[in-house]
Amino acid sequence: MTVETVDPAPAFPSLTTPRLRLRELTPDDTPEVFEIHSDAEGMRWFGSDLLTRSEQALGLIETFAAWRKMPNPGTRWGIERKENGHLIGTCGLFKWNRAWRSCTIGYELARSAWGVGYMREALVAMLQWGFDNMALNRVEALIHPENQRSRRTVARLGFAFEGRMREAGFWNGETQDLELHALLMRDWPPGRLG
User: Fold this and answer.
1) Which residues contact 63 (CB under 8 A, 6 or more apart)?
2) Where is the N-acetyltransferase domain (predicted)?
């Protein structure tokens, strides 16, 4: 049996939730992306060094856009509040292995938007799109062991802890252990996400 998958490159898939709009990042988002990615506390566990110049934020936006043209493509959404159009973070599916029906997720949120369920809301929409359009069976998240917020977020979405990867990451001049968490399609019953 052949599984049909959608090529993510032709048209950017905008998504909506009750409070959020997930949309393509543009150069106009450079100030907000810089603000998020230059916040030392907010980006403590993100997995890359802090941005120090706004040009780096524009480069990051261009990198996310280029993901869609890679051999193992990805899609990175800007997360904005519907009420005011303010960009509060990003989330994405990347390292898509079509043959293995798997990919990895990544995300970050401005500290001013923490604690009210925005990321969970965005990830539900993004994961549903991935399962529906990419024929995914497995989605992985690599999370720093001390990142309690992120660990709780993925656990609430049905991700299972699968193990610790020693010194798998490197940022802020140090090697970092990461935990592997994974979600299987069979563990994704949208009805349980209340």
Assistant:
1) none
2) 20-190
Q: Which of 182, 180, 190, 5 is nearest to 101 (CA)?
A: 5
Predicted structure pTM score: 0.88
Q: Is 162 in contact with 181 (CB distance < 8 Å)?
A: yes
DSSP-based three-state secondary structure for 64: helix
Strand-pairing partners, residue 102, are: 97, 138
Tens of pLDDT, residue by residue over 150-166, are 999 999 999 999 999 89
The domains of the chain, with CATH numbers, are: 15-140 (3.40.630.30)
Report the length, in residues, of the chain: 194
Distance in angstroms (rounded) separating the CA atoms of residues 40 and 98: 35
- CA-based max dimension of the chain: 50
What's the rounded Cα separation, in Å, for the pair 185 and 176?
29
- Which pLDDT tens digit goes with each residue over 64-95? 888 888 877 889 999 999 999 999 999 999 99
> What does DSSP say about strands 87-97 and 15-16: parallel, antiparallel, or unpaired?
unpaired
